[in-house]
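We now fix the convention by which a protein and its fold are recorded. These numbers are not coordinates but entries in a learned vocabulary of local backbone shapes. A record is reproduced here so that you can trace the correspondence yourselves:
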Amino acid sequence: MLDSPAPSGTSIHRWLCSRLPSEVEAATRRLAASPDVRHIALMPDTHWAGNVCVGSVFATRQLLYHRAVGGDLGCGMAAMRLQASAELFRSEAAAARILWGLEQRVPILGHPRQRLPTLPDLPACSCPSLDKALARDARAQFGSLGRGNHFLELQADPQNQLWIMVHSGSRSFGKAVAGAYSYAETAVESGSTLGRAFLNDLAVARAYARANRREILRQVQELFETHGISSEPQTLIDCDHNHIQAEDHFGRTWWVHRKGALSAHAGEAGLIPGSMATASFHVEGRGQPASLCSSSHGAGRKWTRQQARKSCSLKQLRREMRGVWFDQRRALQLCEEAPAAYRDIRAVMRAQRDLTRVVRELRPVLVYKG
């Protein structure tokens, strides 16, 4: 951990596995100079993403920096164990059957009209326009995965037992919430009418994102049940990594902003994925005060998507993915998500040994991704 004071007096704590690029340093200095920002923690997967970098955690007393956490509010991870061994995927035919089933049950972008999902029961938004946006977007997208780094993986634990891991969020509704407040100042008072409305809509987006992950898990459970394989609901782990919430730290209550960072209070369960071809980890938080009880949310990008498309060939992707089943028809698209585009997850985990305790390590067996 590296500590450094900012000129504004804001404390900055860093858990790094490599030197930060200049644009990340500059963005962090701008954040430290922002009104009411008093504590910043940078996770080992920190990478540039505009004014507030992915992997940033910061605390304020009164102000809500609603733009800081991005549009995919409540984006996160969920995992559940299956009563099956990874030996299930010894053959290409077995993997193809499951990939086909996932494609039928868990669309990447949205549902065909003949398969509209059953919508979740959620709290009301702060205004009718957002209620309409939620109803519209959920009809098309609830239970869908999304593109980019969102994924569904089947992973094997050290006992070769299969687990499901899902990475998805609030889909278009989270972006609608972010857009509804885009006219507002960079930060709003938490106790103001606007601040209370945003916190309400953020809570709805987080609940929707959580329900979306649960629906995806339910569809995967039903798919495996058709093959005579049960799941273990009591093993469910669910966590999100794009949010703002009130928490007690240093003897006071703060608004903790996490953009691409996991809450890691003492004993809190979490999920930290690597890349498509590397290990993922189930963890427990250690409650490190200087990190605002946070940890990385993954390996973190090393290359931008554009750099990955230029640098990674199909031949390289297939070499890196050796031993992991995936849909070869999407290979060209997946080059931007190639393992080489991400940091070394083991280096990330070493850098945050005082933030999390590893409960189990898992290896990818099958990847379903857009």
